[in-house]
Amino acid sequence: MPRFEKTDTNPESMQASSANSPSPVDWLGANFVNPFVNTLCIEPANAVAWAVDTSSGQKEAHRLTPLPVPRQSAKTTFPEVLCQGVASAMGSVIPYALAGRLTGNTMRFAGATLQAEGVLAKFAQSEKAAQILGGGIYDGMKETHAGETHLRNGAAGAVNFAILEYWKRASKSSTLGRALDRFYAGMFGAFAHIAVARPDVMCLDRKSSDLDMGSAILTNGLMNALLPGTQEGIRLLQDKATIKMGLGVPVDRYLKTSNLARHDFSGKNESSLLEQNRWARIEPNAQFSSYQHGSDMVSLKGDACKWTFLHELQHRKEALSGKAEPGFVRAASLLSKDSDQAWYVYKSVRLAQEIRAELANYHRTALPKYSDAVYELKIKIPYSGAAGGVPYITIWRIEFKEFMRSKGKYRPERDFSVRHTDRELESEANKLNVRLSARQPYAAEAISSVMARPDLKTEQVTRVFKHINEFLDPRQAHTILLPLDRLAMQTLRLAAKPEKVAQGTNPTCGPASVEYITYVKHPENAADLISQVVRRHKYDCADGSSIIVNGLNVLPERYWHRSFANQLFQTTAVNVHWQRKNNLEPWLTKDDSPNIDIAPGKTRYQRLATTQLNESPYRLIDYSKEPPALIYDRLPPALKDDPADPLMNHESLNDINNQINGAAGGAVALPWDLSSPQQLNSLLAARRLTGKLPVITVVDSKHPLFRDGLSDPSAGSWHSVVIKSFDPIEKVVSLFNPWGNLIDNVSIKQVFEANKEQKVTGSHKTL
Amino acid sequence: MTEIANIGCIKRLQLPDGWTATRQVLAQFGNSYLYHYGRTDTLDIQLSIFYRGMLVSSLSGKAFERILKKEPHELSAETVLSISEVLGNCAQPDLYELDRARTITLADKKVIDVEGRFEEFPLENRTIFINGGNDGCAVLEIIYSGPKDLFSKHAAAIDHSLKTIEWK
């Protein structure tokens, strides 16, 4: 029970100051701040110090001196009593609620460790019991005063909280009504506390006491009114922290706070399953619903229904009981003799696990016949989709390969795909899902679709998620408020389907082609680029140069028809090339001008404020000049058709790729001049064999393949496209066009013609 | 008096007095072209002829054609939504405050006439969307835009100029 009646260290001075009409600030300090700090900080600190001193056998007391509070006397005014009461109630409610929570956690830990059952388990899980014990322990640890003992104080605290927790309240009354109920309970509790802790003051013939019963009763009443909210706030904070640390929340707590709270679990099977899993911990808002044996954690998707919940609890129950183990041992013993038979046994064990998990839900409908239901499930389950839509049978096959490789020692960690058993990947995917799902309802699908890409290694997918998590990390201090959840979704979708890369209405077909190849081969590098640019407004190239990407370049475009993720990658890519250049070759040669030099790091591809909504707003600008000058103004007339042109050729694109993806993979852009269709054919055949497709080539956009059926396009120019795949037998390729489309079945002859049809003399200029 | 000739499906268009070609941006995106015309006494007002360089989807193209086949009429919100790809930024409510969208006839050819403003800048705008091909997928745009006072001042002259258009 909070008290403040004995904290005045200098009563005379306080009385004196009180008599001399103190200033409002002093009055508030003495009557509100001091009692608040005393009950919130000093009392708990002294209680802990007492416990430490006592347990270590130290006689010398280490205590903090409480701040002075005016003593209650005949001269004390009602506002003073009220103010001190409110402050003490507000200050003390937090330590008491914390004590209850700590005790509850200890009881739960003990219960889970001992796998307590029955009444003991219920007691260990009881939050009321935890608060009574916690309150009692805290009161017992507090400093004693005249007429008190630690033991009696502890018992008094427990009695007080027993009254607070079990006081009958009218649950249907209004908020004010409930608060008043709690207030009355608190008053009564305070009275009981005093009766146990200080029976001497309860004598009817007592003359005086240093205890102000009225203040104590008022304070306890107020504290009790504040207690439920504080308890819930601390519970929520703890839940958030444990989820973040990957420890999940207790199942009973999850059932109270999740969308399952409104469901009834009183059915015989359900309540029995819940009892058997009373110590389970739940990880809410996970990427997939599953049970992870290693960490004994039931992961549930944000939208997991009651039946998924029960299904996963059944998996947990089975895993802990080792029910499937004899089956796995039998399958292992068959491995050396007959692998087909071993597969059959393994599959049967896994199927039986899923059937039992499904049957855990079957009581919900009138089960016509148990054997019929099992028969139906036997047929249905193997080909029904598990996580990410992959059929169970496929997942079991992958698991069985691992089972064979480990000579029968492997056990499925989870109830689906081995691909998802990588802990780091799971952790990153779950973190990403938790961060995105509140604002992006399709986050789980986007994450799954990246994981479903068969050509990516687990480490690559993990790194994609890790980099996206970096910029979504709420601890990151972003200088500009960006739509990061949207950017994360765009990056995920590009990683899942690189064909979504688009240049919009910008002349960035070359960088967009490099972007496409990066998302195909190294999506983790694309995610890294976006993460660096968003977090630091800089990008570190492979050669160690640091590229500045700032100003309007890092604000989402609204008018130029490409996603923010496309915008960041493409404009950064142009800057990766231009901020490392020291001359204007090949766009300006010594024949054109005696001065072709530019200061390295000073030329940037920068977005400018504009009202020309049908033109790309980017310009190459030389910031070494004062005022900054457009590179466009120095170009020869033949190249002056588009001021937003980033001036890229195949060498620039290879340079960008080397800086983003490393030089080990070789060139990603074919040479400008292809001498014959045969040369193109042999180049593509060699690249196909060495895994170096896709590759960028240059075409004339006036070629019929790209001119949209227009008989006479009024304009056209060099354009970069990507040869996505090559069929050496049919001699056809599949093209990715950064305008946002795929063109299949294009013959080598057509590609060669498009590469040659209208060549701009003296320049290697592309869009 | 300046005359525009031979751009896309436009054979001829007389510009109002005082208007001349200012600049052009070719092939910025695919086969796009953008021709700007303005006045010598102010740079703030502009008439442009724009082809976006790529076709709209056949679904949008068909919807565009269907609308143009009907007698001149005001477009409902649903109709605007059905051709949002054709109308581009003008169909984005967060970018463009649409006052009016209707079909009109210019030299016996039906076109979509959209009026409104880009509030962010702010720029008053009138855009004529023309079916530049055979299937509604190649969309040519005549864009008239500028600050409110100048826009209103020259609106009648531009309207008169549009009536001089001849098609190929």
The CATH superfamily of chain B turns out to be Mog1/PsbP, alpha/beta/alpha sandwich
Helical fraction of chain A equals: 40-55%
What is the overall shape of chain A?
Answer: flat
The SSE string of chain B, one letter per element, is EEEEEHHHEEEEHE
Rounded average pLDDT of chain B:
92
| Order of strands across the main sheet of chain B | 3-4-5-9-8-7-6
Helix coverage percent of residues of chain B?
10-25%
Largest sheet of chain A: 4 strands, mixed
Point out poorly predicted stretches of chain A: 4-19, 415-420, 759-767
Query: What's the shape of chain B?
Result: globular
Distance between the termini of chain B: 21 Å
Which structural traits does this protein have?
heterodimer, A: 767 residues, alpha+beta, 4-stranded antiparallel sheet, 13 strands, 51% helix, disordered C terminus, B: 168 residues, Protein Transport Mog1p, Chain A, 7-stranded antiparallel sheet, 3-stranded antiparallel sheet, 4 helices
Explain how this protein is built.
The complex is a heterodimer of chains A (767) and B (168). Chain A is α+β, with helices and mostly antiparallel strands. Chain A has 4 domains: 11-243, no CATH class; 249-421, no CATH class; 441-650, no CATH class; 664-756, no CATH class. In chain A, 51% of the residues lie in helices and 8% in strands. Chain A is built from 25 helices and 13 strands. Chain A has helices spanning 11-19, 24-56, 78-113, 118-125, 127-141, 150-166, 175-197, 213-244, 251-257, 268-276, 306-321, 325-335, 339-359, 370-380, 392-405, 423-437, 443-451, 458-472, 484-496, 509-521, 523-536, 564-578, 650-661, 677-689, 748-756; strands at residues 249-250, 281-286, 290-292, 297-301, 538-540, 546-548, 603-607, 618-622, 629-630, 695-700, 718-727, 732-737, 741-747. In chain A, strands 1-2-4-3 form a 4-stranded mixed β-sheet. A 4-stranded antiparallel β-sheet of chain A has the order 10-11-12-13, sandwiched between helices. Chain A has a 3-stranded antiparallel β-sheet with strand order 7-8-9. In chain A, helix 16 (423-437) packs parallel to helix 18 and helix 24 (677-689) crosses helix 25 (748-756). The longest helix of chain A has 36 residues, at 78-113. Chain A is flat and about 110 Å long. Mean pLDDT of chain A is 83; it is low at 4-19, 415-420 and 759-767. In chain B, the strands form 2 sheets. In chain B, strands 3-4-5-9-8-7-6 form a 7-stranded antiparallel β-sheet, sandwiched between helices. A 3-stranded antiparallel β-sheet of chain B has the order 1-2-10, with no helix packed on it. Chain B has 4 helices and 10 strands. Chain B has helices at residues 58-69, 77-82, 84-87, 148-162; strands at residues 3-7, 10-14, 19-26, 33-39, 46-51, 96-106, 109-118, 123-131, 139-146, 166-167. The mean pLDDT of chain B is 92. With 168 residues, chain B is an alpha+beta fold.
